[in-house]
Every structure is written in C-alpha cells, then in structure tokens.
Amino acid sequence: MEGFIVRKARETDIPEVMRINVETLPENYWYGFYKHLLDNWGEAFLVAEVGGKLVGYAMSRVEEHSDPVLLGLAVELEEEGGVLKRIVSMLRSLGEPRPVGHLVSIAVRAPYRRKGIGSKLLEETIRVMREVYKTDSIYLEVRVTNEPAIRLYEKFGFRKARIVKGYYADGEDAFIMVKRLK
Ligand code: ACO
Ligand code: ZN
User: Fold this and answer.
1) Which of 19, 106, 126, 160 best tests ligand 1's pocket when mutated (most atoms within 8 Å of CB)?
2) Whole-number Å distance between alpha carbons of 175 and 165
3) Rounded CA gap, 160 and 151, in Å?
4) In this structure, which residue's CA is closest to atom 21 in ligand 1?
C-alpha cells in the first residue's frame, strides 16, 4: 500500500468524512454536527489520506467535567462498584470542572485497516489534547463487543472505566474508556 498521511480536516472534507462514517458505524450525524466540531476544535479534527483519497477520520471536542471517572481519577466498573464507592464518587464529583477531551468518533475504511492508520489518528488526537487543548484526560464510549477498537484504545493507555447500560440505539452497552493525561 502507498503511504498514508494524517492532517487536519478542512470544511470541504466533511462530505467524505460523513460517507466514511456511514460506511463504518451505525452512529451517524448531520452535517452541522461535523461543522460544529471543526469550527470549535479543529486542531483535533483529523483525516487520514492515501493518494489523495480520504480513508479515515477522528473527531473530538473538549468538555468540562468534575466526574472523577471522566477525569481518569477513578474506575467505576460494576464488578468493583458498590454503594459506598458510588457515594464517594459522587462526593468527589463536587470538585471544580476541568477540561476533558472527548473522542467522539474514529474510523478507518475497511480495506485500509490494520496498517497503523487508526493508531496514527489516535496518537495525534492524544497529542493535540495534551499540547493544544491541555486537557486533564481524554475519554470515549465504545460498544462492549467492539474488540478491535477496544484493543486499539488499550494499546494507547485507555482503561475501561464505566459501563453505560443500553447506551446505543439498538440497546447495546458502552464502555467508557479513559486515559489520564496529567
Ligand atoms: N482485531 C484485533 N485487534 C485489532 C483489530 C482487529 N480486527 N484491529 C485493530 N486492532 C488493534 C490491534 O492491537 C492493532 O495493533 P496491531 O495491528 O499491531 O496488532 C491496533 O488495534 C492498531 O491497529 P491500527 O491498524 O492502527 O487500526 P486501524 O487502522 O485498523 O483502525 C479502527 C482501528 C479505527 C477501530 C477500525 O477497526 C475501524 O474503523 N473500525 C470500525 C469503526 C469503529 O469501530 N470505530 C470505533 C468506534 S468507538 C469511537 O468512535 C469512540
Ligand atoms: Zn461520545
């Protein structure tokens, strides 16, 4: 395969990013959502290109949270749960909100997978969150059965931090995975 490059997205890339998203994931968004992410957090809206063709993207936003799970300071998986831990966690959530990166969506077209493109998109997202947006952590939701994605995230130091029951439209649960950046 020819080499690939990862670069910041431009507004004219959005229609092709939307096509990749529809091809690869059931979670789809309208044009204005992509435009909003690009306008506000453009440094973290990335595309991967092979020979002038878009083959992948990663898009993120920055949010403010005091939830210690999203900040990468606590894990709240069910097996480690319990009422006391939840109360402690709620109390810790009363702290000042901090900037947190949210990886909204990442995908690579099927014929271009397992070549390191997803890794490069994720690595660059982490770098931008750390160096440009100076977030305390980065988090994402992923289907509990999406092993390729979960492995990719674990490879970059994300840890399963919470399960959200029935998060997806079809009823599947999500893991929230978090990487602390500080
Ligand atoms: N099975 C097992 N592990 C895998 C697989 C797989 N099919 N694919 C990737 N991995 C893991 C491996 O550890 C791999 O490293 P290795 O190849 O050295 O073993 C590592 O991830 C990195 O692989 P890359 O080649 O860098 O990743 P790729 O370009 O294939 O992209 C991605 C991975 C984005 C998850 C791709 O499979 C994809 O587009 N899937 C469909 C869309 C999707 O599920 N996106 C994530 C949804 S969650 C969210 O967006 C926040
Ligand atoms: Zn999300």
Assistant:
1) 106
2) 9
3) 11
4) 152
Ligand 1 binding pocket, CB closer than 6 Å: 24-25, 103, 105-108, 113-119, 140, 142, 146-149, 151-152, 155
pTM: 0.95
Q: Give the angle subtended at the CA of 129 by the CAs of 80 and 89, to the nearest 5°.
A: 25
φ, ψ dihedrals at 165, nearest 5°? -65, 135
Mind giving me the DSSP string for 9-60?
A: --GGGHHHHHHHHHHH-S----HHHHHHHHHHHGGG-EEEEETTEEEEEEEE
Per-residue pLDDT tens over the stretch 97-151:
999 999 999 999 999 999 999 999 999 999 999 999 999 999 999 999 999 999 9
Reply yes or no on whether the pLDDT at 2 is more than 70: no
Calpha distance 68→81 (Å, rounded): 14
The C-alpha atoms of residue 116 and residue 18 are separated, in whole angstroms, by 21
Q: What is the number of the ligand 1 atom nearest to the C-alpha of 152?
A: 21
Strand 98-108 versus strand 53-65 pairing type: antiparallel
pLDDT digits (tens, 9 = 90+) for 34-58: 999 999 999 999 999 999 999 999 9
Q: In the chain, which ranges are E strands? A: 5-8, 46-50, 53-65, 98-108, 137-143, 159-164, 174-180
